[in-house]
Amino acid sequence: SNYLIAELRDHHTQPASDERVMPISSTASDFWSAAATVIRTATTVSTSSLRICTPYLVTDRVLEHSLIAAKKRGVDITITVPDPPNSDSKLAALAAINCLPRLLQHGITVFAYEPTLIHRKCLVINDEVAIIGSVNFNQRSQRKDDEFCLLIDKGATVEKLIGDFEQDRNYARQLDPSEFQRRHFFLGKAARLIDPFRQHI
């Protein structure tokens, strides 16, 4: 988070009350977009916690390995996604069913939000810096789409987002690796068939 805070200050941002905010726009790219860069940087520099909320979780190998590496160095990672039946993109939900088991097997905590589709796109690093906007944790968002997000330093907004994460957990169930694979056994087979095309999802 120190790296991200330094980026905020190096870009001569103006404080919004007690907060610093930096806008980040991202244009479509098949290789390395600003959206992908900021998310991968966040996972790499995290030292204590990562709170992630996304309606679409479709990692590539680089992002998957970055999340697992963060977990191995002691970062507490919590991800909130929609319960698969609630997703408004059946293809993205299917791809997530193939991505989630590897994260769960490495001890990353995942909650499935049950009441409805949760469409918030938010990442909080070390309970200090937040990234909010249109960027999702899927490959289409990070490679194909034009996106916009805000990088926010410590302050009331970050504290409010942390509170929202905690509140959402009251309406979500924590995914168990074995139960998840049993529940989605047949869909998991279909999900593996589309795995080579995840960069387009």
Explain this structure.
With 201 residues, this protein is an alpha+beta fold. Helices cover 42% and strands 22% of the residues. It has 8 helices and 9 strands. The protein has helices at 2-10, 34-45, 61-72, 90-105, 139-143, 156-168, 177-183, 185-194; strands at residues 15-16, 19-26, 49-53, 76-82, 109-113, 122-125, 129-133, 147-152, 172-174. It has a 9-stranded mixed sheet, with helices on both faces. Helix 2 (34-45) packs parallel to helix 3. The longest helix is centred in the middle third of the chain and has 16 residues, at 90-105. The radius of gyration is 16 Å and the shape is globular. The model has no long low-confidence stretch (mean pLDDT 78).
